[in-house]
Write a structure and sequence with these properties.
Helices cover 52% and strands 14% of the residues. With 239 residues, the protein is of the alpha+beta class. Strands 3-4-5 form a three-stranded antiparallel sheet. Strands 1-2 form a two-stranded antiparallel sheet.
């Protein structure tokens, strides 16, 4: 009987203790809300994009079920992607689908990677034969974007690392490529004035046209301290 009374007493205390724990767990809904907000992260957005790629078009409610998120959360993520151009909403059905922006980004990456890979062997060979550092670069707007570099023991005159940019009008590399695109040079770099990196930089369209015509005639381009003072470079131009 004593044991029974003790158990009953313990049982009578249990609701109080549970109530205290329950009171302490009032933070549970807050934590749940924070967890729901945390789901709208970069990872969730990428997951949403991958899900969208499986459908020609899909409504927000159905998409939320596939993502296992609340409908408002799915809607917020769709709106974020819509505002940045990755998703569009069809006006009649109100469904969503991916745009071609991902295709555009992927194509850019693929083209640059392919160029770098194809050029790697030749650039390595050129560096070994000349004993000089060699670069792979492309024209991006009015700039030269350096994609890769093969270094040698020779002291680098200009250390333009992969990922760095320089005005095309101020570098031998840029001018050599512009000479190939001579007919479209105004479209590529604009009518000027161009960036003045040093007192020797070409800044007007007339000066640039004269320089490019000279490069086509001679078959090489020269950096006459146009990017950095004290640095002169000569580069063959494949015109």
């Amino acid at each position: 009987m004593v044991t029974a009374r003790n158990e009953q007493a313990a049982g009578s205390r249990a609701p109080g203790s549970r109530a205290r724990r329950g009171k302490g767990s009032e933070g549970g809904p807050v934590a749940d809300a924070q967890a729901r907000r945390a789901r709208s992260t970069t990872g969730d957005l990428l997951n949403l994009v991958e899900q969208l790629s499986n459908f020609d078009r899909i409504g927000v409610t159905r998409l939320a079920r596939h993502l296992d998120v609340p409908v408002p959360t799915a809607y917020r993520m769709l709106r974020a992607l819509e505002q940045t151009g990755y998703v569009e909403q069809l006006p009649e059905s109100k469904e969503y689908r991916l745009t071609l922006k991902l295709f555009e980004l992927g194509s850019r990456v693929a083209s640059r990677t392919t160029l770098r890979d194809l050029a790697a062997v030749e650039v390595e060979r050129l560096a070994q034969q000349s004993g000089l550092a060699s670069n792979v670069s492309v024209l991006v707007g009015g700039d030269v974007l350096y994609l890769a570099q093969v270094k040698t023991e020779e002291l680098l005159a200009v250390n333009l690392t992969p990922g760095s940019r320089a005005p095309a009008t101020c570098t031998a590399m840029g001018k050599a490529m512009l000479a190939v695109e001579f007919r479209n040079v105004r479209t590529v770099v604009g009518p000027g004035p161009y960036p003045r990196q040093t007192e020797h930089s070409i800044t007007t369209y007339e000066e640039l046209v004269t320089e490019l015509a000279k490069i086509q005639r001679l078959g090489y381009a020269v950096d006459r301290q146009e990017l950095n003072l004290g640095v002169r470079l000569r580069l063959p131009a494949a015109t």
